[in-house]
Amino acid sequence: MSAGTALPGAPVDNARLARLFRMDSVWEQWVDTFIGTRTRHLARDLDTGEQYCSLADLATTAARHAITAANISPADIELIVMGTSTPDMLMPATVNIVADRIGINRVPTYQLQSGCSGAVQALEVAHHFLQTGAYRTALVLGGDTTAKHFDVDLDVTSMPPAQLVNLILFGDAAGAVVLGTSPDHGRAVIRRVVTRLTGLGREPGQSLEWYGLADRDSDRPPASENYKMIEESVPPMAVETLHMLLDDLGWKETDLDYLLPPQLSGRMTPRIVEALGVPSAEEVSCVTETGNTGNALPFFQIERALAEMAPGDRALGIAVESSKWIQAGYVFEAL
């Protein structure tokens, strides 16, 4: 396994957002204290409102980095799977735009529509295909861009918290990994991937609209989030995922060297890590600098972990999708 990532533009700090939305320093302090995310990268120019970078742009860059890190060429890729909640268009699928740009053709391509677990779901699909022996090398992509929902002229003074949080919590990014059946394809091997829908009878914690011509003037908010529900639900779901993975492998918490926890926000991550209770493992987090980049985040964590892991080190990652509640996790070991 090898990894690559991509971020658009320079980091945007909370002070810049406060100036953009004409909010005072108290608002900036509120973001620092209750959200804990210091910076994020946005694919929209905050001065002009122009979207200068698409998800396909970012995913193409990340894919090229991962392919280079794997020491292979695009022609070696036999399968592509992508996870995203914010594709550039309904059709054509973003995964196929990326494939075209990096010169890949005549291979199966899949795009999964999902929130923060989508990257792990894509990883699971690719991993299963490789285990069947049908393919030798797979490219897995994940990413999200909120640029299409980011209005620089928005009046936020009367905006309810469920909508306001989306302006400060998220960032834009993409990531990629190359998986292969040969150890020459990277520095680590996947030991286990698991995803489970657990939303039966539960209200969605997050929604993201997609307007068509018939309803684009609707007064429904484009995005909303029950952040309190997410704060209460994600830590126990993460703990359950941790033990599910360890039980499957017959491992103990002390067998882990690196922990890649869910990356909701800078404030939530320490709470989740504390609930997970794996003090022997080194935490790999990036959300305070990148913002919540959805399906890109696991790849940023994987990339950072791979740079530090020694042969034999073990890492466990967890993601939770809060729109309809999906638990996802993965374990990899350095070669």
TrEMBL record:
Record keywords, A-Z: Acyltransferase, Transferase
Gene Ontology MF terms in the entry: 3-oxoacyl-[acyl-carrier-protein] synthase activity; beta-ketoacyl-acyl-carrier-protein synthase III activity
Domain Beta-ketoacyl-[acyl-carrier-protein] synthase III N-terminal, chain residue ranges per copy: 112-189
InterPro entries (UniProt xref): ACP_syn_III_C, ACP_syn_III_N, Thiolase-like
Domain Beta-ketoacyl-[acyl-carrier-protein] synthase III C-terminal: 246-319
Gene3D superfamilies from the UniProt entry: 3.40.47.10
Protein's GO biological process: fatty acid biosynthetic process; secondary metabolite biosynthetic process
The keyword Transferase is assigned to this record: yes
Record EC number: 2.3.1.180
Enzyme class: transferase
Top-level taxon of origin: Bacteria
Name this protein carries in UniProt: 3-oxoacyl-(Acyl-carrier-protein) synthase III
Species, as recorded: Frankia torreyi
